[in-house]
Design goal:
The chain is mainly β. It has one domain. It is built from 1 helix and 8 strands. Strands 1, 2, 3, 4, 5, 6, 7 and 8 form an 8-stranded antiparallel beta sheet that branches. A hairpin with a 2-residue loop joins strand 3 and strand 4. The longest helix is centred in the first third of the chain and has 12 residues. It is globular. The N terminus is likely disordered.
C-alpha cells in the first residue's frame, strides 16, 4: 500500500473555516489589490460554503466572495504572515456591501489571498 506523503486538507470551505478558527481574523487581497487598509482591515468569518462548482465565503457585515470553478487553496506566507491563497477559479465576484464600492467581478487571472 502506497502512503500519500501529503495530508488531505479537506474541502475548500473546510480549509477556510480552519484557517479562521486558528487565526481569528484576516485581511483580504483581491486580484487587483488589498480590500481596505493593508494589515489594518481585518475581518472575521461568517460562513464558508462549498458550492457545486466553487466556493462562497462571507465575512463580517455581509461581505461576500464567490469563486466559481475548480478552486484550489494553498497555505502560504505573505510578508511573514500566515495566509491562504485561493486560485484556479474561472471567475470571482466580490460584493463588499459597504455602500461605497459596488460588486466587482474578476476573470480567471490572479488569486485571492486571506492574510492573518
Amino acid at each position: 500500500m502506497t502512503r500519500n506523503p501529503w495530508p488531505i486538507l479537506g474541502s475548500p470551505a473546510h480549509v477556510v473555516v480552519r484557517f479562521f478558527a486558528k487565526h481569528g481574523r484576516a485581511g483580504l487581497v483581491l486580484p487587483d489589490g488589498w480590500y481596505g487598509r493593508p494589515f489594518d482591515s481585518l475581518f472575521t468569518l461568517t460562513s464558508a460554503v462549498d458550492l457545486p462548482h466553487g466556493l462562497k465565503i462571507e465575512i463580517e457585515d455581509g461581505r461576500e466572495l464567490i469563486c466559481e470553478g475548480d478552486v484550489t487553496i494553498a497555505k502560504m506566507q505573505f510578508e511573514e504572515h500566515p495566509a491562504l491563497k485561493i486560485e484556479g477559479f474561472k471567475s470571482a465576484s466580490w460584493n463588499p456591501r459597504d455602500g461605497v464600492v459596488r460588486r466587482q467581478t474578476y476573470g480567471d487571472s490572479g488569486a485571492v489571498i486571506l492574510v492573518s
